[in-house]
Amino acid sequence: MEQQYILSAVGSNRSGVVAEVSEAVFTAGGNIENSFMTLLGEHFSLMLQVGLLAEDASRKLQDQCEVLRRDKDLAVHLFPVQGEGSGRGARTSVLPQYDIRVQGKDRPGVVYRLSGLLASRDINILQMSTRVEQSFSDRTPQLSMRIQVEVPDEVDDRSLRRDLKGLAEDLGNTITLTSRRD
Fold this sequence. Notes:
Blueprint: E1 3-12, H1 17-27, E2 30-40, E3 43-52, H2 57-72, E4 75-81, E5 98-105, H3 110-120, E6 124-134, E7 141-150, H4 157-171, E8 174-179
Antiparallel strand pairs: 1-3, 1-4, 2-3, 5-7, 5-8, 6-7
């Protein structure tokens, strides 16, 4: 039976880090099924969903993670995925039903307030990325955020748009909601 793990790794950015982590997974007999990698400041961040088939692959993967910690100076965490939905294909891929984009002046609490609004309506965030850059015109930090969400059928589209518009006005940012159902 296939075992599933989530592997996260964080460390100083340098060439070859993806090759090192993927080699560790391969050496342990694992297969990378889903991944997300990015730079956060001067640090590299990676998340992998790894499938293992062999009986002893779990121990080998744990040993390889220890090598990455010790020899490659990476903070590595390995999380077993338990129960239903842990095997390949156990949960069908969810396509985002909406894209939410936020543009405007960066300020503390934007992510918190928007994610709180979504959570209060049982809206699942599937993917989120944020970026803060300095405006060329006045050097004010500008936030750009993109969120892909899965919205329950019982959530009314008009009331969601109204609530997002109210939040945008309160924050002084632009928030757009685009349906992917079309």
